[in-house]
Structure formats: structure tokens, C-alpha cells
Amino acid sequence: MGKLNDLAGAGQAVWLDFVDRKFLEAGGLQKLVDEDGVTGVTSNPTIFQKAMGEGTAYDETLAAFDKANPGASAMDRYEHLAIQDIKAAAETLRPVYDRLNGKDGYVSLEVSPYLANDTDGTIAEAQKLWAAVDRPNLMIKIPGTPAGVPAIAATIANGINVNVTLLFSQESYQAVALAYVEGLELRVSRGEPIDRIASVASFFISRIDAEIDKKIDALIENGGATADEAKALKGKVAIANAKLAYAWYQDFIASDRWQALAAKGAQPQRLLWASTGTKNPDYPDTLYVDTLIGPDTVNTMPPKTLDAYRERGTARVTLTEDLDGARKVLADADRLGLDLPGITERLVEEGVASFSKSFDDLLGSIEAKHPADA
User: Could you list the active site residues?
Assistant: First the structure.
């Protein structure tokens, strides 16, 4: 039992931020489940673009689908391929889901990024994908955009597990946490069960520091009295932001409102740390794992981060350490004009645009391999 398994003892689940047909067919996910205690999988349009748009692993399946469905759109083709992979991952994780009574063992499939600002479209697509995969350990990924918040509440009320993605600010996280609660409360008001519904709130980490560091580097280059203060904040702002989001979570699950739902079997919406591979080579490659360990959380890691943590990670509860220090980091960032609120708002927009671009490229690759008139 290696270091990744140790995270479970600290209350944190390890998920894999990767999916690929060759990897699944070769037993790669099963190996991680068996040896490293991995209990979930996340996917996104960029991951699928890399998997499907490169190589030939999906060509045979795609050709068979085209033959049976002449004139099918690129979107239909993509969904056919993605749903097969998600079903396979869900089957691998089903024993985990059963063993933990629905507390974990999930695989996530994202709604089209084209729907990020379309509430009704998101609700409809969530229902369609949920029915198509037809596995209880599926989570539908919905972005935590203003249009996504009511879609999250409605989707939970429909009895569908939700992974909320693209969260950067504490305020956005709090909004989707309350949307989860609203969905559960609606089910309770209708006399429907809530004990087998699960959700995670995916809070992105490294992208924040990547943007903050640019501003810090500019202050350092300009010199002056604030240069040293700015330098001291490098690699700390995203972690401080996440720690305070978790502190809010702890306060909220102790509230009367949440406890009323917990008494009916509700599962807390776990914070999931996403974008945990370091983008700055000066930082330790396990930075965004070591510093964000705590009960009722998930860290979804790309394969390289999994490998790094397996070799040199340190498993102890760190999320609740030095919250006053975290508050000071954010206060100093504000005082120095690093504009965390502006950065987090822009990162949501850029995240939607990036996933949409990956989706464009993915659909283009599928169309080029098997044109509609083939």
C-alpha cells in the first residue's frame, strides 16, 4: 500500500483526471483502483480531444457506428464514443461504489461546453446523458457559471449526481453548494429519497497561481517596497483560496439547514481539487496535493501528478492548518492589487472558451476521420 492509499486515511479520495480507451482496455484504471486506491475518474472535453483526436484507438468503433447510422452528426459520433468509455470506467468503479454504499466510485461526463450559458439546455443534456450511460455511479459535469447554478439545482432535484466544474472563487463555490442543497430540499418536499445522490464541487487550483504569478513577477520586476512582499506570495494564493473555501464548507455542514438534510441521509457535496498539476516548474510537483488534504474532499490528479505523489507525497491533514495565515495571504494579495476576484472571473470565461475550443477540435477530428457522406 503506497502513499496514494495513505490519503484515504486522511479522509481524501483520489480520482484520476484522465480517460482513454487504450488505457481502459489495458486494465490501467483497474490497476490504479487495486494498487493505489483510486476511487473515481473525471473527464472533460480537452481529455477526450486528446484521446479521440490522436491515434487510431477509436477508428474501428467509429466506422461500425457510421455504418449503422449513416449521416450521423459529429456530435452523435462523439457521444457514442464517449459514452462507451464512461460506461467502461463506471463498470470498473462499480465495486468501489457498491462497497462504499454510493459514497464514492464515480465517473464524470461533462455536458457540452456550448451550453455553459444555457440553463434549460444544460438541464436537458444532463438528463439525456444520464439516461444514455444508465449507471448509478455516473456524475454529470455542469459548469458553475451563473446559468449553471439553477441547472445544478434542477438536475439534483431530478435525482442525477452532479460534478460542478470550473469553480475558482469562494463566492461561486458557495452558490453551487447552496444549489445542491436546494435540489435536495425540493426532493424532500416531494417525498423523494436523497440518500443515494452525490455531488462534488470542483475547485480549480493551479490556474489561479499561474495568473497571480504573472502579476507578482511584474511587481518584482518593477522593484520597490512591494517586491519582496509580492515574492513571498508566490505559490500561496490558490492554496489560501481553497483553504478558506473548505472552512466555509465545514461551517455550512454544521448548520441547522444542512443537518436537517443529513438526518434524511443526504451526502455532503465534497470539495474536489482540480487542476492540481503544477504549471510552474519552480514548485514541487506535489504542491497542490500535499497542501490540500482534509476529510470529505477529493483530489483529481492527472497521471503525472499521481506518479509524483506515489513517489514522494506526504499524507497528513493540511487543509485546516494556519487559516489565519491563509486570510493574510489573500489580504496581502488584495492590498498589492493582484486582483484575485478579477482573475477568477476571467478564468471561468477562459475555461469555458478553452473547453469549447477543445470540443471544436474534437468534433472536427471526428468529422475528418469519418465524413458524413462516407
Answer: 141
